[in-house]
Amino acid sequence: MPYKKYPFYNRILFWVLAPVLIIGIACSTFLAATMSAPLKKMITQQFDADLRLLSGIGLELCEESFSYLLELRLEQNSEMNTVLKNETMEKIKALSGHFPQIHMMVLESGSRIKACSLEGMPEKWENTGIYSGNDIRFFSNLEKEKIHGHLQYFPFWDWSVVSFMYDTDYQRPVRMAYQLTYVASAGAFLAVVVTLLIVFHLMINRPLNRLVSATDGVAEGKLSKIKNMSQNEFGRLMRSFNGMVDSINQEKAEISHLIGKLEDSRSYIGNIIDSMPSMVIGVNRALQITQWNKAAVAATGINGSGALGRNIRDVLPRLKVDVDIIVRSITTREIEQLPKRPRKKGHETFYEDVIVYPLVMENEEGAVIRIDDVTETVRLEEMLVQNEKMLSVGGLAAGMAHEINNPLAGVIQNANVLSGRLSDTSMPANLKAAESIGIPMAGIEQYMTVRGIPRILEAISESGMRMASIVDNMLSFARKGEDTASLHDPVVLMERTLELALTDYDWKEQYDFKSIAVEKQYGDNLPRIPCESSKIQQVLLNLLNNGAYAMLEKQALGKESDYKPEFIIRLSLDTVDQMLKIEIKDNGMGMDEDTCKRVFEPFFTTKPVGVGTGLGLSVSYFIITKNHKGSFDVASQKDRGTNFIIRLPLTH
Question: Domain count of the chain?
Answer without folding.
Answer: 4
